[in-house]
Fold this sequence. Notes:
The chain is rod-shaped, with a radius of gyration of 21 Å. It has helices spanning 4-24, 29-49, 59-62, 64-75, 83-108, 113-141. The chain is 78% helix and 0% strand. It has 6 helices and no strands. By secondary structure, the protein is an all-alpha fold.
Amino acid sequence: MMDKNEAREALASADAAVSRMRGKTRRPGPVVFLLGLAMMVMTAVYGLLIEPSTQYAVPVVVLIPFFALVIYTATRPVLARHHRTLYVLATTAGAAVYTLTVTLGTVFFSGEALWWGPGAILCAMPFFVIAILERKAARTSGARP
Length: 145
């Protein structure tokens, strides 16, 4: 059995390890925000600048930020509570908005800035929401953003 001194030393050692680990943690908020910007720019460029003859091959390329988000969350061995659910919901909602924006925009609003501008912003919103939630979580837990 451990005596009190050994127990205190073990707890102190564990506390030191926890504080070292907390100091090294980083939240993915800024990266997710950049993915949102990439999604917004790529969707707007697709809708406003791509010629109609090549429009049907490009939408898959514009999904790169979604693929990056899915791969990122799938490869994390440990995520904070409810993160996988949040990322799955955001990715599903974002994919639905993207599909609606691109499908209707390609068929009915090719090159129309009034459709593609707001559509691009809406496509980026799931990423921005995650980045904001990550920033709030970082502030409350004391981790670096």
